[in-house]
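Input.
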Amino acid sequence: MKKLFFMAVAAAMMAACGPKTPEEQQTSQADTMIKENLKTVLYNMDSYEPVATQVDTLYASYEDAEMCADLERLQEMTAELAELDKAVTKAKSNVSYWINPISDIGRHELAVARHELNEATEKYDQAKAKVDAKREEIQALFDMKPNFVGYKVTHSYKATGIDGKPMMGNMVFFFDPTMERITGSMTLEDYENARKQIYKLKDALDFE
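Output.
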């Protein structure tokens, strides 16, 4: 009976010490690289204690910080275009006001108004072309079939802050397809806020 018990214990230990699954290998590799990365961030690395790591496949899509920046830029460009449109409307109004001059002063003012209208129209047309091009670029990304571009790793840890008090960190790290290089990182809160902002801007800018 004792022999069977020890055999069972030995089998269990061998199973526990057996080869890691691909998922376990990925997580272990991510943990090692993240720990090295955090050495440049944490005030007291000796207090670092990993809590949880989740590795997810990452596909190119509009749910990233780069897309969020593109949408915010487009929003700024659209606002600038609206201001230029107002300038064109104002210039047209000035031309209409001086359209039938009866004096040299009136003719001068009409020439000035027409020049300002031409300038305002040219600026508007140039800005609109840039806005249209940016919209097409972003829409193409929305329509693009997602492609595998690497991994998103969510990592939680405990550490001591600069004030000596314990803190909990939640980070998102982006890895290349080979999981040999960290291509970027941000706090989990910033990542989630970026995703929310993307959906908000997507609706505000009338994207499909």
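Strands lie at 44-59, 148-160, 166-175, 182-187.
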